[in-house]
Give the backbone structure.
Amino acid sequence: MSGQAAITALRRAEVWPEPIVMPCAAALGARLDGRVPEDLRASAQVLADACLSAARFLEADAVWISALAPDGGADFGPEFLRDAATRAIAAARIAGLGVVVELRGPLARALEIGGETGGNVDAALKTIKPAMIAEFEAIANLRPDIIVLADPKASPEQADSRALARLYGALKRLAEHYDILKGMCPAQPGMSGPTAPDLAFGDPDAPGSTERARAIAPDWSVEETFTREVRNAMEAARQSAETLIVSGRISGASVASPEAIRTAVQGIRGRA
């Protein structure tokens, strides 16, 4: 089964019989390419190559390219990310893989400049809105399969923000216009209707779930733990007739044996 076929089923909201694997693994890709995460800032091609190397090595269904730099420093800039995404998308289509592009979400951006607006989240959201929409649409124009917004979990007061709901809704409409799935990492509490994401990517503490799929972020650093978490989640997904997405962030340094993790991925699909 090809990666693109799995992503197409996801887009059609059809249940896929195997876990759909799509980790954020640029750091692992850098390691496989003989680099360190800081090297990914060298050029857009280096970042694209690392994301593709990880996806191919793990036999993933999709390449995940993120604005969140794995070296823990500042995010990759919009133009740099767009260039890298353009290159990764072209190569992924040839390889028969889906593509996920991750952007820093509106709440994270608003909180980052909160001090400049007296801590007023709604005012900060108004400030960041034009750039957020422009960056989202620039990536949507490239036609990835999924755009994920990475945001912190909203507080009860932030979750009640009409400005935040309106911005999430505007981005969801943009995704629909370009026929792209909108994901959240994680989904915000109480999101429903026009603001609800198509996909909710879980964190290590809790899975994400929408009508389209269940998503987990297992511990990728240890083969046995990874296999146990995925098998348990797959059993639950089968019982409820859901598609399971296996995602999460892979730190190149935290994986003791990349080969063992690749074997684990093959094992959960019965290919080992």
User: Anything to note?
Assistant: Residues 121-140 form the longest helix (20 residues). Strands lie at 20-21, 62-66, 98-104, 146-150, 181-185, 199-200, 208-209, 214-216, 244-246.
